Amino acid sequence: MKKNYYVVSISTLLVMSTIVGCGVSGATKSNGSNAASATKSGVITLKAVSAWPKSTPDNAGLFDLIKKVNALGKGKVHIEYLGGPSVIPTMQQPDALKSGTMDIDWTSAGYTSSLVPAANALKLSTLTPQQERSQGVTKLWNTIFKQMNARFLCRGAGSPKVSFHLYTTKPVKSLSDFKGLPMRTSPAYKNFLTALGAAPVSLPPGQVYTALQRGVVKGYGWPGYGIHNFGWDKLTKYMIDPGFYQVDDIALMNLKTWNSLPKNIQAIFNKADVQVEQDMKKHFLQLQKKDVASMQKKGVKVIHLSSQQSKTYTKLAYSSAWNSSLTAP
Fold it and tell me: Which end of the chain has the lower number of beta carbons within 10 A, N or C?
């Protein structure tokens, strides 16, 4: 059977990381003490933080993981949710996880790219999480994320059909309309926006509403759901179709914490991780369909690019991301 291009490319990224001496063969030493603790009753308590505020839809997988682990591990292990960016700012969370300030980070793979450049390729998968596990991709990610002293637990969105979209406050009739357009970005799609000729502006989600209101940005990238949770639907006029990439929400655990867990507790996580990925596939496919319909009812128009423009748009999205990932230091 011919190997999936994604599997081959991730294997290449792993080899490249090893060659340049990024330390993927072993864990990075933690500079601080781990947050994990055991109560007098012997229950291990793990501290979790999310990249987004509690009510954000992207956190659904985290709360599902917490529910499952706490149920399966009752009397043995307990995950305590501390909060989102108000506890630790979004872009500081990967470093906090690496140092052991917290045990679990629910985040975007793109947000970790300053520590793990290859992480930006996680969104490029055309495989389901189940296929990634069966084809060995999950094991490759576990090796790669050792660069930031982390254990890869699971994906959060569950399907390559749950994708990102670009949203704008002005109509886009052709790809040339993106030229010079200031667009809020994250590491996940910065290369794509640059390739389109747009002007990427890096902002955390909490600052996007004001930036749109003041005209600092004329659009942004986000999954095909959840813009109403930030109030962006009130300022957004258009959603560009087709979508691109697979939403890259992931759960990471500090590697020192993981290695300190008894085998039976690790087994609980392994079981819960698989269940979460299965549950989130259905959840996010339904949410995406529901939210797109809701946006349209509120006046957000979906712009369907022409067949040729769509092909160029999609090709540009993936080629710009792969070029960046495969040439990252």
Answer: N
